[in-house]
């Protein structure tokens, strides 16, 4: 049975209330007649024999690359880098695909007599992964074999001894990556390509890099010129990453790229009602939905958070390809699009979205207000090809409780960013100019990034830059059901109900506006024609 | 003239200089603690706005004219010969008129100081004049209220020998007062009392170290003696029919004056309640915050709705310029053979009823509401009248309830996290103030005597028409409605600094100003306490965390629960003496391997310290560094445990345990930095680094950190416990309330998460 494609539903009188994600909970919204709801494609049938697929990919690389086995020789230095805790979302049910791939790579390496192996969580400026998180990603066997000897570790972008400056691109962009990676005879990078932005040259050029290099594309100008950053052909972020990646390749660093795509089978039972179309829900689904909502509305947010953070997705592998970076990435991107792209005719005046409890930067953590903004205006807004779903000057309505809450260990610089920077200005350019350097070079943040589990001092700036394309494009942002103080601090408006939000939006887009709601997650990418 | 720096005295000096052209003044002024008598005259008299008129009239000559016509002599009426040197005595005795206006006007002065000033003051003046064999006209300023708590007419006559004054010998009263002081002082030194004072000091300051507790104990002892003396004065006065110690001592002072005056001609001027000026030097001129004003303002703010008095009662108010004019007229007229009394009061010829006063006031505040800090008008309520005693009792009950609550709060380990404690302290202080006003004012509200002013009026009628124009003191000239609404209340709201416009405050708030001062580039260093200042945790918690990290699950829970069960005992020990507590507690680290502790402490940063940290506090540390200040952490916590915080500080002063063969011995290497030791270590460190403590900033949360806070120029109370709230507030220190991050994980027990057991590397799988 092939999976059904996504669709655009025209709301009429018989359309049931739509389920909006709303942080650690849901809202049911009856949308006005004539609105559109974009539903994702259903999960593509996954590969059944994953281990064989991995073996096949390693032995039959794409592009100008010999098989993995041919690249491994006794006495060589091998570095295996892998995506960090920000992928996939939510974390996948064990065994994690990274671990399954790494085990096979290690098998081949062992057979070839390679014993200088390092495994590095390529986290760039993200927080270090905890032991439990590393175990989940690579599996206990790999962890126990390599962590105690110091061969499995988190990348440290602030280790003055651990980085190599490789030069500048012809556009003046510095290229800096892990010294160990540069000195290795081969880097094997294991990707999970959840969305179309992931992978390619970004894997090594960003994942194993630091502030000196990242600031050349993690900035307001680049983000505003990436329309969208999910669309490689129109992404300046992509272009710059590629320039840096090619410099690394041309310098002779050998990379064996492994990329994987997953279907969007996001929610396990009993949460599977979240990926059903409302009119197709069974009686049991409805009971579960209502019951869950009742419970979630009653219990403390702290408890709801731990329930949701416990979700492990049943994601199925839809493709795996290995070999030369660019050849691999082309196939990967096609496979991502196959799962995500949904065709939508024309733009809308108002784009609404229900923001879930999770984004890339709050796994096992708290979705603070900055991350709420980034998930909505950075990620969801940019999940388009062609044109933005919402017209220029239109309105984005996001539903999320947006509590004024922060994780003190994971997001210390976010707290200060919110209290100090956003209190001064919400203008991304002004913020970039006035505050970025100080946060990026702050001793204390550096210390926490390196020794604790904190995102880098500059990370909240990147979150805000991620929003800058949307902030420039739309006329107003309204948050439904959010903490009013927190929403105001970010320069958005808050509405208690969807009805109020729509009423407020008419001030900007006029009477009788068109409304499009994206029913995400499971992830979808709008192909706007 | 004595008492020239007072309200009436200043008005007199101004009036004499302006309206009596050739008059020269000799002012006897008590030197202040910081300022000489001359300086006090310059600052407190000539710079007062009473002299605005004269300054503009005389222009640049003002200082010179004052210099010529006014001589200042340093002295004190409570000393023999008024504490004057020979030259001073000569100048004093050369005067033709002596106006004695110095008095202890406070209604709750200690018995003996009232006696020394109000009763014996006039005697000493007489004595000095008699010794010099001079006979100037002495005009002594008294008060109408010497008539005591009686109803009906109170005429311009001396009370001694009349049925209206109990026949007591003033000499006996003087002796008794002095003896009472000596007795109370002796009583304050008995062991039980001293123990109680020490306990009081401990309750107020916590474990602040021996020197500070000793100082506080002595302060409490003196305060106790003083309070008892106040009470002794009050009860003695009431027992003899006077409302308070002021009127009692003034009345006996009059009696002594009449008895001892001898050849010296004497007049006594008795004003009623002196209030703001009717016309001179300008309408509404007032000095200081006087009797009725605090009550009026409390009413306008809606804090007080019951007035101590009866609606039909008479509030006998007299503008200050009328009193000054009357005194000058008495001086000009010259003395009679026998001492005369002149009363300056409004009640008998132009009475102002409470009801009228309050209704007019209410009406005025309705048109001119007082605004709160947010720019919202506050509404005064309808007045209720109460005999003052009922109201006093009611307030007394409330204050008592607050005191009990404060005791309970002081004992609880809660903090000003939500500024609950600081609000509590403020409210209590407010109440206390109102209660004080009601007490003193209530006594006057109850006075139902009518003060006759026949002699004063006769004097007025005898004046030539131009003097009547320049020196008005006929109270019937006062239009009360005009006086209250146009003269008095506009001054009151200015004096009380209340807002009468809805504009929000512009410019920085007090806290912002203090914060800017603290972060100013001129500061040298910032010292931080750790527990409850930067993190909401303590040494017991971090110990439990570290000690459990390598135990099995069941043992960990057992251990943690056992430690928690000891907390009440530890807490008591900590309250008694922090140093002792730390010595006792740190023995538990005996045998702990140092390198493992160091590794565990690095993890504890993420799992305990950061989770319980106050992000605003950590931000503040870095703000100081950004401002170029040195930062220092001073904590009783163990050095190993705070090592992960090193990047925040230039220097860390922490408790250190001796090490042997890679293990801790449990014995401390130095006196742990607590109480006064903490202050000393901080100052030593500053001196070693050429940093000036006067330019230092210190952050702490508890009264036991007082020595450290007092050692710097810029103390900051952080999440202060109730005791510190009160202290910080009184001294105008910056107070910060730094919360934990909302949403931070809340571990149920302080237990270390278990690292995975080290397994032997298995080599590459497969």
Radius of gyration of chain B: 33 Å
CATH topology of the domain at 514-736 in chain B: Rossmann fold
Question: Can you list the strand order of the major beta sheet of chain B?
Answer: 17-16-15-20-21-22
Overall mean confidence score, pLDDT of chain A: 95
Describe the main β-sheet of chain B briefly.
Answer: 6 strands, parallel
Q: What's the CATH superfamily of the domain at 514-736 in chain B, by name? A: HAD superfamily/HAD-like
What distance lies between the first and last C-alpha atoms of chain B, to the nearest angstrom? 108 Å
Number of structurally distinct domains of chain A: 2
State the CATH class of the domain at 514-736 in chain B.
Alpha Beta
Oligomer: heterodimer
CATH topology of the largest domain in chain A: 2-enoyl-CoA Hydratase, Chain A, domain 1
The CATH architecture designation of the domain at 514-736 in chain B is 3-Layer(aba) Sandwich
The share of residues in extended strands of chain B comes to 5-15%
What does this structure look like?
The complex is a heterodimer of chains A (529) and B (766). Helices cover 38% and strands 19% of the residues of chain A. With 529 residues, chain A is α/β, with parallel strands linked by helices. A 7-stranded mixed β-sheet of chain A has the order 1-4-19-14-16-17-18, sandwiched between helices. The longest helix of chain A has 16 residues, at 283-298. The mean pLDDT of chain A is 95. With 766 residues, chain B is α/β, with parallel strands linked by helices. The interface between A and B is large, with 42 and 34 residues.
List keywords for this structure.
heterodimer; A: 529 residues; alpha/beta; 2-enoyl-CoA Hydratase, Chain A, domain 1; Rossmann fold; seven-stranded mixed beta sheet; six-stranded mixed beta sheet; 20 strands; B: 766 residues; six-stranded parallel beta sheet; four-stranded parallel beta sheet; 29 helices; 22 strands; elongated; disordered C terminus
């Amino acid at each position: 049975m092939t999976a059904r494609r996504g669709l655009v539903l025209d709301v009429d009188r018989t359309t049931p209330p739509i389920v909006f994600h709303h942080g650690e909970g849901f809202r049911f919204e009856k949308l006005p007649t004539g609105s559109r709801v974009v539903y994702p494609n259903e999960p593509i049938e996954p590969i059944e024999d994953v281990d064989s697929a991995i073996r096949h990919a390693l032995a039959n690389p794409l592009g100008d690359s010999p098989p993995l086995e041919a690249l491994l020789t006794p006495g060589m230095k091998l570095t295996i880098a892998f995506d960090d805790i920000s992928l996939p979302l939510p974390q996948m049910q064990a065994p994690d695909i990274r671990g399954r791939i790494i085990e096979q790579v290690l098998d081949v390496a062992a057979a070839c007599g390679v014993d200088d192996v390092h495994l590095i969580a390529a986290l760039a400026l993200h927080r270090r992964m905890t032991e439990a998180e590393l175990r989940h990603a690579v599996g206990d066997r790999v962890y126990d074999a390599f962590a105690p000897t110091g061969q499995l570790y988190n990348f440290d972008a602030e280790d003055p001894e651990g980085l190599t400056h490789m030069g500048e691109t012809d556009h003046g962009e510095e290229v800096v990556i892990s010294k160990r990676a540069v000195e290795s005879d081969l880097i094997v990078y294991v990707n999970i390509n959840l969305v179309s932005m992931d992978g390619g040259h970004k894997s090594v050029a960003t994942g194993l890099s630091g502030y000196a290099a990242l600031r050349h594309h993690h900035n307001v100008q680049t983000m505003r010129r990436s329309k969208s950053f999910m669309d490689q052909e129109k992404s300046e972020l992509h272009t710059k990453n590629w320039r840096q990646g090619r410099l690394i390749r041309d310098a002779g660093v050998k990379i064996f790229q492994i990329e994987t795509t997953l279907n969007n089978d996001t929610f396990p039972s009993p949460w599977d009602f979240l990926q059903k179309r409302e009119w197709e829900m069974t009686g049991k689904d409805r009971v579960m939905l209502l019951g869950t909502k009742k419970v979630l509305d009653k219990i403390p947010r702290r408890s709801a958070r731990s329930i949701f953070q416990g979700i492990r997705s049943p994601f199925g592998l839809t493709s795996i390809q290995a070999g030369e970076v660019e050849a691999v990435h082309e196939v990967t991107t096609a496979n991502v699009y196959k799962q995500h792209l949904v065709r939508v005719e024309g733009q809308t005046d108002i784009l609404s979205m229900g923001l879930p409890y999770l984004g890339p930067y709050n796994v096992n953590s708290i979705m603070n207000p900055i991350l709420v903004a980034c998930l909505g205006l950075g990620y969801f807004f940019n999940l388009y090809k062609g044109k933005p779903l919402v017209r220029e000057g239109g309105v984005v309505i996001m539903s999320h409780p947006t509590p004024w809450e922060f994780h003190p260990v994971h997001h210390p610089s976010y707290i200060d960013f919110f209290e100090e920077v956003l209190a001064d200005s919400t203008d991304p350019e002004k913020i970039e100019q006035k505050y970025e350097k100080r946060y990026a070079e702050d001793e204390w943040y550096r210390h926490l990034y390196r020794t604790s589990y904190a995102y880098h001092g500059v990370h909240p700036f990147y979150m805000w830059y991620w929003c800058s394309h949307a902030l420039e494009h739309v006329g107003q942002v309204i948050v439904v059901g959010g903490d009013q103080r927190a929403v105001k601090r970010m320069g958005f408006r808050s509405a208690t109900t969807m009805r109020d939000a729509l009423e407020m939006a008419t001030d900007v887009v006029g009477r009788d506006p068109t409304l499009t709601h994206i029913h995400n997650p499971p992830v979808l990418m709008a192909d706007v024609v | 003239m004595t008492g020239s720096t007072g309200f009436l005295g200043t008005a007199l000096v101004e009036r004499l200089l302006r309206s009596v052209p050739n008059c020269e003044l000799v002012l006897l002024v008590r030197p202040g603690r910081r300022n000489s008598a001359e300086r006090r005259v310059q600052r407190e008299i000539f710079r007062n706005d009473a002299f605005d008129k004269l300054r503009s009239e005389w222009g640049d000559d003002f200082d010179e004219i004052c210099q010529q016509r006014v001589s200042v002599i340093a002295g004190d009426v409570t000393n023999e010969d008024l504490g004057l040197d020979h030259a001073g005595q000569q100048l004093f005795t050369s005067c033709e008129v002596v106006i004695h206006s110095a008095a202890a006007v406070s209604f709750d002065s200690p018995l003996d100081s009232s006696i020394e000033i109000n009763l014996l003051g006039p005697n000493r003046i007489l004595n000095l004049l008699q010794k010099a064999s001079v006979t100037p006209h002495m005009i002594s300023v008294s008060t109408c209220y010497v008539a005591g708590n009686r109803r009906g007419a109170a005429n311009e006559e001396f009370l001694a020998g009349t049925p209206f004054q109990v026949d007591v010998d003033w000499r006996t009263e003087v002796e008794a007062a002095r003896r009472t002081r000596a007795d109370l002082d002796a009583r304050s030194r008995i062991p039980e009392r001293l123990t109680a004072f020490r306990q009081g000091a401990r309750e107020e300051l916590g474990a602040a170290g021996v020197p500070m507790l000793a100082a506080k104990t002595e302060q409490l002892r003196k305060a106790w003696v003083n309070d008892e003396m106040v009470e002794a004065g009050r009860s003695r006065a009431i027992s003899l029919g006077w409302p308070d110690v002021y009127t009692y001592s003034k009345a006996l002072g009059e009696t002594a004056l009449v008895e001892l005056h001898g050849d010296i001609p004497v007049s006594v001027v008795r004003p009623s309640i002196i209030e703001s000026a009717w016309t001179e030097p300008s309408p509404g001129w007032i000095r200081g915050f006087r009797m009725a004003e605090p009550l009026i303002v409390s009413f306008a703010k809606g804090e007080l709705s019951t007035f101590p008095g009866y609606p039909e009662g008479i509030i006998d108010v007299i503008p200050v310029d009328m009193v000054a004019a009357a005194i000058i007229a008495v001086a000009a007229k010259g003395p009679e053979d026998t001492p005369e009394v002149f009363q300056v009061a409004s009640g008998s010829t132009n009475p102002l009823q409470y009801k009228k006063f309050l209704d007019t006031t209410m009406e005025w505040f309705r048109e001119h509401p007082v605004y709160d800090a947010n720019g919202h008008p506050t509404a005064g309520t309808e007045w209720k009248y109460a005999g003052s005693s009922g109201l006093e009792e009611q307030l007394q009950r409330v204050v008592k309830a607050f005191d009990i609550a404060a005791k309970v709060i002081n004992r609880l380990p809660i903090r000003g996290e939500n500024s609950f404690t600081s609000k509590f302290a403020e409210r209590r202080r407010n109440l206390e103030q109102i209660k004080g006003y009601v007490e003193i004012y209530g006594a006057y509200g109850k006075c139902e005597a009518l003060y006759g002013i026949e002699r004063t009026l006769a004097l007025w009628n005898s004046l030539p028409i131009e003097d009547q124009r320049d020196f008005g003191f006929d109270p019937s000239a006062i239009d009360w409605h005009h006086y209250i609404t146009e003269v008095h209340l506009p001054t009151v709201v200015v004096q009380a600094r209340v807002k009468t416009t809805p504009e929000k405050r512009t410019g920085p708030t007090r806290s912002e100003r203090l914060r800017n001062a603290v972060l100013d580039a001129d500061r040298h260093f910032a010292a931080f306490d750790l527990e409850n200042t930067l993190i909401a945790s303590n040494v017991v918690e971090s110990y439990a965390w570290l000690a459990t990290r390598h135990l099995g699950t069941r043992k960990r829970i057992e251990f943690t629960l056992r430690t928690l069960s000891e907390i009440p005992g530890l807490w008591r020990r900590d309250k008694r003496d922090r140093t002792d507590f730390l010595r006792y507690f740190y023995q538990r680290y005996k045998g702990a391997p140092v390198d493992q502790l160091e590794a565990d402490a690095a993890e504890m940063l993420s799992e305990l310290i950061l989770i319980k940290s106050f992000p605003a506090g950590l931000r503040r540390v870095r703000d100081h560094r950004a401002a170029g200040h040195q930062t220092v952490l001073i904590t009783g916590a163990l050095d190993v445990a705070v090592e992960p915080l090193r990047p925040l500080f230039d220097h860390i002063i922490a408790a250190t345990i001796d090490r042997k063969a890679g293990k801790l011995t449990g014995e401390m290497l130095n006196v742990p930095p607590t109480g006064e030791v903490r202050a000393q270590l901080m100052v030593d460190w500053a001196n070693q680094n050429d940093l000036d403590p006067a330019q230092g900033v210190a952050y702490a949360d508890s009264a036991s950190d007082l020595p450290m806070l007092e050692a710097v120029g810029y103390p900051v109370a952080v999440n202060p416990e109730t005791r510190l709230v009160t202290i910080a507030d009184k001294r105008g220190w910056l107070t910060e309330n730094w919360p934990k991050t909302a949403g931070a994980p809340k571990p149920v027990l302080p237990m270390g998460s278990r690292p995975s057991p080290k397994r032997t590397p298995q080599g590459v799988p497969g």
